[in-house]
Design a protein that fits this description.
The chain has seven helices and nine strands; from the N terminus they run βββαβαβαβαββααβα. It has helices at 30-40, 54-59, 78-87, 108-120, 145-149, 158-163, 181-193, and strands at residues 2-9, 24-25, 28-29, 46-50, 67-70, 93-100, 125-130, 133-141, 166-170. The strands form two sheets. The protein has a seven-stranded mixed β-sheet, sandwiched between helices.
């Protein structure tokens, strides 16, 4: 049962004012970290969806055996990146793990646990739960790929997660993502203290 990772890294980071994919935590860019933990969790392949700042973000993946695909419609929002990533998933993959690079609470152990739970019920969507909702990272079986390819706008896969019987796994700190420089500085302080 091969699971592909689709790492969403095409956005313009408007609230940040610079590409958040290239921000570093513990000396590693966020995009590199997301691809690394997907690979460590056993995803094959790990597909990084690039868009705005594609050249610089792609260069930050140096040394990792991941695939890259370009979302030419990145300005539309997250749905276009999901469509682009799902279209790049090879035929042998039975599921796709969607994840973003701006969720520092996600680590390889959490992804391995999510994959393990999914494999127990491979027809269900498995997703992280935090802040009273379910969200990414989320594992979608191949039967969901057409619905993912039909998404539009900046809402992402949340509609699919809300309407499905989802196997949810609590993610402590999952509500923390890095959208602004204030978020980034707070995360740096938090990591220094731990």
């Amino acid at each position: 049962m091969s699971i592909a990772a689709v790492i969403l890294a095409a956005g313009a980071s408007r609230r940040m004012g610079r590409p958040k994919q290239l921000l570093e935590l513990d000396g590693e860019s966020l995009v590199h970290r997301a691809a690394r933990i997907a690979l460590q969790a056993g995803c094959d392949p790990a597909i990084v969806v690039l868009g705005h700042h594609a050249e610089a973000v792609g260069a930050a993946l140096s040394g990792l055996p991941c695939a890259k695909t370009i979302n030419m419609d990145w300005a539309e929002g997250m749905a276009s990146s999901i469509r682009t990533g799902i279209a790049a998933v090879p035929q042998h993959a039975t599921a796709a793990l969607l994840l973003a690079c701006d969720q520092p609470a996600v680590d390889a152990d959490f992804l391995r646990t999510l994959i393990k739970e999914y494999r127990l019920e491979p027809e269900r969507i498995a997703a992280a739960s935090y802040a009273g909702a379910v969200g990414i990272p989320a594992l979608f079986p191949r039967r969901c790929f057409e619905a993912l390819k039909g998404l539009a706008g900046d809402r992402g896969a949340r509609a699919l997660l809300e309407d499905a019987d989802v196997l949810s796994l609590p993610l402590l700190g999952g509500e923390m993502d890095i959208d602004t420089i204030i978020d980034y500085e707070a995360m740096q302080r938090r990591m220094e203290q731990s």
